[in-house]
Amino acid sequence: MNKNELEKELSKEILKKIIDNNNYPVKTKEDLKTIVNISNTNEEIFERTLAYFAILNISRK
User: Fold this and answer.
1) What is the pLDDT, as a whole number, of residue 36?
2) Domain range for 16
3) Least packed by Cβ within 10 Å: which of 3, 8, 10, 11?
């Protein structure tokens, strides 16, 4: 595992811990962890998370 791969993996693990420590419902936590797992870059995580919350917000209205 090279340095970039290690940094990417550590970033994902940190994000998952942040998700676990928030007051999100279980389903939201699972969805966010899936986003983190399937994303290849921090930019993808950011874009997919924004889209997720936008869709979640629209569906609640």
Assistant:
1) 96
2) 3-60
3) 3
